[in-house]
Amino acid sequence: GCETNLNTSAASCGACGNACSFANATPACTGGRCTIGACNAGFADCDMNLSNGCETNTGSNVAHCGGCGMVCAAINGTPSCGGGACSIVCGAGFGDCDGNPRNGCETNLGASAAHCGACGRACSFANGMPGCRAGTCARSHRLPAAQANVSSGAP
């Protein structure tokens, strides 16, 4: 005979000898139906499809890096996922200057006066507005809006 609770035994779930098994998961039996008890470390059931278990490796999948739906940004670069953490290799002329790979390579190094040619390389001039042209600091001939209004006599 089968001396086990068919409603809770993962080895005999719903019927004697009906063992529950899922990829990358610890099986469970609830109410006589096989379920996923827990995903193995580094895996998740992102598609919510019981038949393929915990199908997603959250340690290396750029669409589910560190957890389901946690996408590594590809803005101006090539993303990767390692150990559940996003990283990015920026395309030419762009930088990840805020250090947050989740928003990609957000800075145009050819036009940002705060990050001109490289992250953290700020442009400044004693007598003029700093600017950045093609990754090189340059003095801007534009006046700030407040000065332009005073110079033109506008209120």
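the 2nd protein, sequnce then structure:
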Amino acid sequence: CWAFMSALYRQNISLNLLSMTYRKIVEKLIVLAKNRVYLSFYNTEWSLKIYKIYGIKNCDSCRKAIKALDSKALFVDIRKNPLTRNELQLFFSTFGDSLLNKKSISWKKLSEHERNKNLLDLIIAYPTLMKRPVIDLGTELVLGWNPKKLTALGY
């Protein structure tokens, strides 16, 4: 039991062991491991901190973010799981035109006619045009991999 508790402590998971049976604890951990959820326990209520990293698997900045936030984040590959229009509108309302990566090869390959299309339609059609990663901290969105900014925000 002590080894189990120390393993929980190392994973930053504290539980009120008196209120849960060992079996329930293991079931919760299995669910968390499958969903890669960072979990904290305060005042007998579950407080889930699920960070999402939206990006592309091959992107170097996304890889850095995944490596740094691995145990606390869920990676969403925007090629395999395209963003909804609502998600893109939220990103656009937060970041504006800086969401579009005009330095990308995909942007340079577009014709002048395609470049004049709506920003959301362009990113839906060409996900690689989105500047990456977009990190959803639950209370705030961060564009691009910036460890100093995340540290300043307390993450």
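The first strand starts at residue 38 and ends at 42. DSSP finds eight helices and six strands in the chain.
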